Q: What sequence folds into this?
């Protein structure tokens, strides 16, 4: 291999041509770098916009599922003067509708009564001596859990049995 500039006379036209060629390569490399940076920035902006649109679409899909629940609550309120039994029945139907929406979203209501305490699934709010329950058993669900495993919306708030 020959060294850069080898065989060129100092101050000759060959050295100036080599410098000019290197300067042109450097300018081209700088231009390519700027283009690559601009392309990367444009890709980042496109991705951020896609994420924003996907999040807005997901929110809209969830809201659409809740609209019938809201409609039915408003119907129940408009019949406030009606038979209390009918109102209670209507509210129970709306509650079931809300539970169904949560289930479709992957957050079914969990029944933890009688289960053994699990810190990943339960928040203990109290303990109680219960003669016929093993220590650590959930004896009361204060607030139910929704979802399970990695898809837990919230843990159950429970009362657990203790030994005497």
A:
């Amino acid at each position: 291999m020959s060294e850069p500039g080898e065989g060129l006379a100092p101050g000759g036209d060959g050295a100036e041509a080599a410098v000019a060629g290197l300067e042109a390569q450097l300018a081209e490399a700088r231009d390519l770098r700027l283009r690559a940076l601009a392309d990367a920035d444009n890709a980042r902006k496109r991705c951020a916009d896609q994420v924003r649109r996907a999040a807005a679409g997901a929110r809209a899909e969830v809201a659409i599922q809740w609209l019938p629940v809201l409609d039915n609550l408003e119907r129940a309120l408009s019949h406030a003067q009606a038979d209390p039994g009918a109102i209670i029945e209507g509210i129970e139907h709306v509650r079931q509708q809300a539970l169904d929406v949560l289930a479709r979203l992957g957050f079914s209501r969990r029944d933890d009564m009688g289960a053994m305490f699990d810190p990943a699934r339960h928040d203990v709010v109290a303990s109680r001596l219960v003669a016929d329950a093993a220590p650590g058993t959930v004896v009361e669900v204060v607030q139910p859990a929704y979802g399970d495993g990695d898809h837990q919306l919230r843990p159950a708030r429970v009362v657990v049995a203790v030994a005497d």
Observations:
- The mean pLDDT is 89.
- The beta strands are 109-110, 122-129, 138-143, 145-148, 151-154, 156-162.
